[in-house]
Request: fold
Amino acid sequence: MDLYRKKFAVLDLTHGGIPIAKSLAAAGNEVSGIDVYRTVKPETLLELEEKYGIHCSKTPLPASEFDLIVAPVHLDLAYPMLVEARAQKKTSFRTMKLSEKFSKVIQGFQA
Reply:
C-alpha cells in the first residue's frame, strides 16, 4: 500500500501517536492528530500544528475525510471515528493499529 500523499487521522496522541504523526507528515502526507484522551498539553498541540503542519483536534473529526485512520489497539471501538469508519466499510483496510512494528515502518519514511 502506498503511504505517500494520503490523508491520515492519527488517533491517540498520548500513547505513541505523536512520533507517528510527525513521521507521516514528514513523508509528505496530510495529517490530523486527534487527542482522544484530551491529555496533550495545548502548547504541544500548537507546536505540532505550527512546526509540523499537523492539524490537531480534541474532538472526533469525520472519518470520511481521511484515507487512513491509525488507531491504537486499546482505543474503545465505540470511539465515533471508528464507528463511522466501520459504517462506511473502511475498517478492514483503512484502520491500522499502533504498534512497535508500524512505528518502525513509518520511521523509515524520514530517511
